Amino acid sequence: xxxxxxxxxxxxxxxxxxxxxxxxxxxxxxxxxxxxxxxxxxxxxxxxxxxxxxxxxxxxxxxxxxxxxxxxxxxxxxxxxxxxxxxxxxxxxxxxxxxxxxxxxxxxxxxxxxxxxxxxxxxxxxxxxxxxxxxxxxxxxxxxxxxxxxxxxxxxxxxxxxxxxxxxxxxxxxxxxxxxxxxxxxxxxxxxxxxxxxxxxxxxxxxxxxxxxxxxxxxxxxxxxxxxxxxxxxxxxxxxxxxxxxxxxxxxxxxxxxxxxxxxxxxxxxxxxxxxxxxxxxxxxxxxxxxxxxxxxxxxxxxxxxxxxxxxxxxxxxxxxxxxxxxxxxxxxxxxxxxxxxxxxxxxxxxxxxxxxxxxxxxxxxxxxxxxxxxxxxxxxxxxxxxxxxxxxxxxxxxxxxxxxxxxxxxxxxxxxxxxxxx
Length: 423
What we know:
Blueprint: H1 9-15, E1 23-27, H2 28-41, E2 49-53, H3 60-68, E3 72-75, H4 78-86, E4 94-97, H5 103-112, E5 115-118, H6 123-131, E6 137-141, E7 148-149, E8 155-156, H7 167-179, E9 184-188, H8 200-219, E10 225-227, H9 245-260, E11 269-272, H10 276-279, E12 283-294, E13 298-302, H11 311-315, E14 321-323, E15 333-338, E16 347-354, E17 362-365, E18 386-390, E19 396-400, H12 405-409, H13 419-422
């Protein structure tokens, strides 16, 4: 099996005449088709809404594409709230899921009419202070503790996560909020990351649906919405089978009927908060091979580095690589593909089998559409790359320019030492 780039070598050669590498590029057609599939998979739920995780790809061009597809935005900071507001999102089209939150951010979220998703019971008083009174709609983030396991062995460790409240705390929180005038309630949970299985969402949904029944019985509250959050992943390696979003939707509907409807709870809206699933496969980082080194290992040096994509350096994460124009050649060489940072973990691939790479070849790094550009930084004085959009008609548009030295120097304020660079 192999991953197929959404760009050809000829297209890249055309693009670099205007935009030198490295750059991130996104596939508009793929994004729209994927959003359509998600909406179809959950069309059985009349209140369904995807709240795209802005942190995955905070670009207004991408956000507006998703807005046209019916998505809302999930924000975790003041800047993400401001970005969503600037893109025309307002009211219940914004979910604010934050932790250790400054008071002014709760206040601004409330001014926008966003749904505030509380991370802790102690935040009730904090939000009340920020907003004057609690909003009519509130959500709480659920953390059952322990570990989360599925039949194929995939698991995560909610008990070690800093996020969310215990079930008992949510019961107490809802009773407090109900007494303070809150009318509409939601629950939210994120218990496993990047699962490549159709089992995760239905299992999580069943646990949340059963908790919703408990809330009804103990608080007299029928939750208005249940946010399954993220966690539906993508196949980073070529041998993995992708999730089937239609099977996932059917699985959630099955437990919805078995748990909620069977207990007289109807018309509960299902929300999702997907970032990686929505954008991951529809973005790529394209970089040029500029050096080769033959020492104890074979190295190919490229013009991108970990500041452009930090997941491999930070997590040891796998991203598949294609050498454009050589996709059909035999992968009979073993390389480390490395960037220029003064850190030995600045490697996009280690001991990777690839076809022979020559200086001047373009390497397409797959699946960078989420948590790619957004996790960039400026270590070693490196500058963030441009972001491009491959539009549905085949033309390419710059949707964020590359940083310049002027951007890097602009926040300094001392004795005009850098004037010659800022002019």
